[in-house]
Amino acid sequence: MEQCILALDQGTTSSRAILFNKNGEIKAVAQKEFEQIFPKPGWVEHNPMEIWSSQASVAAEVVTKLGINGKFIAGIGITNQRETTIIWDKETGEPIYNAIVWQDRRTSGFCDELKEKGLAEKIQEKTGLVIDAYFSGTKIKWILDHVEGAREKAAAGKLAFGTVDSWLLWKLTNGKKHITDVTNASRTLIFNIHTLEWDDELLEILDIPKAILPEVKSCSEVYGETGTTIFASKIPIAGIAGDQHAALFGQMCTDPGMVKNTYGTGCFIVANTGKKPVKSENNLLTTIAWKIGDETTYALEGSIFIGGAVVQWLRDGLDFFKHSSEVEALARSVEDNGGVYLVPAFTGLGAPYWDQYARGVIVGITRGTTKGHIARAALEAITYQSKDVVEAMITDAGVQLKELRVDGGASANDFLMQFQADIMGINVIRPNVLETTALGAAYLAGLAVGFWGNLEELKKQWQQDKKFSPSLPSEEVNHNYSQWKRAVDRSKNWLID
């Protein structure tokens, strides 16, 4: 039996485990969905114990599926939904509150206060981020402020904060390791991406005690070993990266100027900018792509809150179809969008607008509008939002894109990928392995334990499945895109009287 690397891919709606062999091929997959908790409008939570139990069960399941034991797993890589915030008791290992998810908007008011104090420039300079409820920092403060006794316990060093990677590592090592990696740390609003350390000034601004923070390490090194609760043998945990960083690595976007778009719940477009951080003048995020050894690679990122989730809304909210896969046929049932544009600003607009008070709109509806037009407008919205971000990236980084590498669930939708190529005017490349997030985590772990020798070996494994080339006339593209911009303007600042 050949050895494998196990990737744990802890996502927003499900936990997954994937085993990869030496050729980067998938040998087995297991997946389990878990509950989304919506206590109030704009609030989104997960039960941390359910995150752990679902992840542990799929890890055990995938090993059983392949008929192997822990001895055949050379290492474990972790990749995760970023920004989602968990605080737990170090002594009991019990969370003191539900995980506050990246989509949660409860701290928007506090973010406004920070902006009013004129802190936006300072925070962007240190963290590469904009002030927004999306990031972990204000979520940490909220939990400490609202859970009885939390501040006292935190000051006494009895609590631990972690993004989901830290929580999983803590549980996998039976509470022995409290560690995160630079990519997850770079999404907290309290980590300095230049010094690669927690920033004392930002901790003071957000009133967060340093005692609760994890140690920050690179993305590819042995952090610890598994306890024997899931696997009979001890396995090195050797790779950690936030989901979008892992996907960039899994896509082998290792040279400056290479860009990938992951079409998941949201859409996340990340461009490798090389060894120096590029400050965005267009509301993009400057972030850390990965750190291997002593070398840090930086990136520009545009985060779109609602990508594939718009299809889930058509399915669950409007009952347009029973299965998300049916959206492509429905969109193809009409020749064009019939003048209908849908802006899915359900929780505000992400990059490059960063308008937390925007809300969704559908414009251009007539008596002749059908389900097909709305379904098509929903898919087109994913591509328009992606173009918004890429245009900003081109301006910031001063590079002209040659191609866009794509992955994530919705990248299997040929209609969507072709329209993306048409709207952007560049080739869209879909790889053979769509599980690039898990693959990236596996690669990072495998490099650390010597399962793979170097980057060159990994680059040879990347293979194209399909190339989508632009075919729409530029006049039509320009007209459609300007109409989209008009629709976005309608959605902005909706919650402000």
Concise structural overview:
The chain has helices spanning 48-66, 108-116, 120-127, 136-146, 150-155, 164-172, 182-185, 200-206, 243-250, 309-316, 327-332, 371-397, 414-424, 436-448, 455-459, 474-491, and strands spanning 4-10, 14-20, 26-33, 45-46, 73-80, 86-89, 99-100, 159-162, 179-181, 191-192, 197-198, 215-217, 220-225, 236-242, 259-263, 267-274, 285-292, 295-304, 341-343, 361-363, 403-407, 427-431, 464-468.
What structural category arises from helix and sheet content? alpha+beta
Number of strands: 23
State the share of residues found in helices, binned by percent: 25-40%
- Average predicted local confidence, pLDDT: 94
Biggest sheet overview: 7 strands, mixed
Q: What is the level-2 CATH architecture name of the domain at 4-244?
A: 2-Layer Sandwich
The tally of helices reads 16
CATH topology of the domain at 4-244: Nucleotidyltransferase, domain 5
Distance between the termini: 65 Å
Characterize the quaternary organization of these chains.
Answer: single chain
CATH class of the domain at 4-244, anyone? Alpha Beta
At the fourth level of CATH, the homologous superfamily of the domain at 4-244 is ATPase, nucleotide binding domain
User: If strands are numbered along the chain, what order do they take across the biggest sheet?
Assistant: 17-18-16-15-21-22-23
Principal-axes geometry comes out as globular
- Proportion of strand residues: 15-25%
Radius of gyration: 22 Å
